[in-house]
Amino acid sequence: VQLVESGGGLVQPGGSLRLSCVASGFSFSSYGLRWYRQAPGKERESVATIYQSVRSTTYANSVKGRFTISRDNAENTVYLQMNRLKPEDTAMYYCNAFSFSVYWGQGTQVTVSS
Question: How confident is the model at residue 100 (pLDDT cuts 50, 70, 90)?
Answer without folding.
Answer: confident
